Amino acid sequence: MLILQVLINGILIGGLYGCVAVGFSLVWGVSNIINLSHGIFIMLGAYITFWLFTLFHIDPFLTIPISATILFLVGYLVQKFLLNYVVGYTQQSGFGVFLSLILTFGLARVFENLMVGIWSGDWRSVTTTYSGLSLHLAGVSIPYIRIAVFGVALLSAGLLSIFLYRSRAGMAIRAITFNTVGAQIVGIELDRIYNITFALGAALAGIAGSLVSLIYSFSPFLSTPYLSWAFVIVVMGGLGSIYGAIAGGILLGIIESVASVYVGPGYQQAIGFIILVLLLVFRPQGLFGKKFLK
Amino acid sequence: MIERRKNILLFGILILVLILFPFLASNYWIRLFTGIFMYGTLAQATNILMGFSGLVPFGNVVFFGIGAYFTGIAMLSLGFPFFIALVLGASACFVFAFVVGHPVLKLKGHYFAIATMGISEAIKQIATNVKITRGGMGLNLPLVPLEVNTSYLFFYFLMFSAMILVTIAAFWISKNRIGYALRAIMSNEDGAKSIGINTLHYKVLAWAISAFFTGLAGGIFAYWYGYIDPPSVFDIGISVRFIIMILLGGAGTIVGPLLGASFIELLSETVWSQFLFIHLGVLGAIIVLVVIFMPKGFLWFYRQKFSLEALLENVRKGKL
User: Fold this and answer.
1) Contact (Cβ atoms closer than 8 angstroms) between residue B65 and residue B221
2) pTM for this structure?
3) Domain A2-282 has what CATH class?
4) Could you tell me how far CA B81 lies from the centroid of its own chain?
5) Using one digit for the tens of pLDDT, what is the confidence trace for B240-251?
6) Cβ contacts (< 8 Å) between A269 and chain B: which residues?
7) Residue of A30, A110, A195 to mutate, testing the B interface (most B Cβ within 10 Å of its Cβ)
8) Is B281 in contact with A224 (Cβ distance < 8 A)?
9) Which residues of chain A are within 8 Å of residue B109 when distances are taken between CB atoms?
10) Which of A267, B110, B114, B117 is 20 to 30 A distant from A284 in Cα terms?
11) Residue B105 lies in a domain
């Protein structure tokens, strides 16, 4: 039954990985910004849940909309007042593309420092009364909380997809990805769409952060692993694809949990990165083909 | 011509000052400058690929780590003297970049940057787990058989020579076939291919040369600090730091990366000593401001004669 347990663990944690990557993938796919603050946004979401839970005793799952809203605002402001002043360079050759990447790196350090100031560098975790309970089924034990986290992760990806296909703003975002110039000709304002996209990406990071806080311990300095997961998954799933990100996340979850049992826990991450490099070289369009938000 | 002679003269004076400097300064300053030279070497080495071809090797720190570990292991397990171990370590980096470069340098832009980051992280994890590196416990290198003050001078001049060496290499490349080929790749890779430039060959060569010098700095660093472990020598933060130095100073120029390295190192030393708790945030904020106002670096600002108009013009240009 070990293999079944390992697979289920991998799938459930993979849903969370997918949620970590969705927002990152969206921003990169739409506005060509590699957001190195994504990891720190996730940590910020985790701390929002932590604060609401310890100070006001709000159930962690109910804090998810709050952290999503706060992060949406943060993301909107960051894009409007900082990133929009460099994205003009992304169309040029040379290093133009990398300016937004370096800017978000600097920004992440500012946020990191602010968070250390507010919450200190200590490790925190959110432990509810139902954290230890699990479902026992056919010799496999599954913590309820992981099932719930998996469900919320899929739900948020589903909601994003509905937004992109059913709302006017969502359709404008997709139009920009298909043809930037054409979309501007029909009256879509590029900077406003970029603001909304980045805000959405940040909101998804906030949701992922709240979910992370339920399963793992966290500290302001722990943003890098989440960022690297996001990179691996985006490359696996294809740039800007929502389902690709979720599928890639689940695949990475399975690979990591199988590797940690059968190869050794130390190699878990190494295998993820080796897959990343191999995929880039042999299948840069992602495992599931290029489907830009189609 | 006069301009050029003036520059050479200035450069000569600067080198002379830096040679005399350690005999007058305290050990604190010597150590600080050794660090500046180390980052100068790293930035210049990466500039050879990044500055001329526009490819940003985000994971170049992997060669710093390989150089450090190769030097350490060659000294400890194989008993080689330091200088031979150092050259072996740097050469290992050259070979590694040459082999890995053939598939990886076919990638463009972001994808190349991420692939190098993936390689760096994978090697870091492997170094944490295999026996020969003693894993996460780290490696203690043999002590320098010199008196304390002399060893400060030793590493000062060692790093200084590494920096001068890589600068000469970068200068030579910029005036050479490789430099012209790389610049052609930067402006239009397909165009370069169509006139018969073997683009992959030149990119791999430039990356391998840059890896050699990065490994050299890594090897010297290992002996200088005496202790290395995977999280410290494969830290992706080091890569980001020297890439920012290159952009700050001015990518593709010879003086720019060195200028950027001195600025960031001196700045972080000052910020660190003045505002201990917020130094990271202050550095981050400076990076954000520089990217917005001065995306082409200090040398550009100098050529614009420090005009504030030009800074605001940048903000307008970057805006959508």
Assistant:
1) no
2) 0.85
3) mainly alpha
4) 25
5) 888 888 888 888
6) 121, 125
7) A110
8) no
9) 97
10) A267
11) yes
Distance CA B99, CA B241 (A): 26
Q: What residue in A sits closest to B105 (Cα-Cα)?
A: A281
A residues 186-215 closer than 8 Å to B (CB): 190-191, 194
Instruction: List pLDDT tens digits, range A119-144.
Output: 888 899 888 888 778 888 777 888 88
From the list A99, A269, A281, the residue facing B104 with the nearest CB is: A281
- Chain B closest CA to A165's CA: distance in Å? 25
Rg (CA), chain B: 20
In DSSP notation, A164-193 reads HHHSHHHHHHHHHHH-HHHHHHTT--HHHH
Residues A82 and A84: their CA atoms lie apart, in Å, by 6
Q: Which residue has tokens 């300016």?
A: A99
Structure tokens at A152: 């919320």
- Which of A46, A22, A48 shows the shortest CA–CA distance to A35? A22
Could you say which of A85, A93, A274 has the minimum Cβ distance to residue B318?
A85
Angle (nearest 5°) at CA A97 between A91 and A103: 125
CB–CB contact A93 B186 (8 Å): yes
**A80, closest residue in chain B (CA to CA):** B319
CB-count exposure of residue B144 (10 Å: 0-12, 13-18, 19+): middle
In this prediction, residue B308 has a pLDDT band, given cuts at 50, 70 and 90, of: confident
Tally the domains of chain B: 1
Residues 73-92 of A with CB under 8 A from B: 82, 84-89
Euclidean distance between CA atoms B239 and B32, whole angstroms: 19
Q: What is the pLDDT of residues A83-122, one digit of tens each?
A: 888 887 766 656 677 788 888 988 998 999 999 989 888 8
Verify whether the Cβ–Cβ distance A105 to B287 is below 8 Å: yes
Annotated domain spans of chain A: 2-282
| B255 domain residue, yes or no | no
Structure tokens at B135: 């894993």
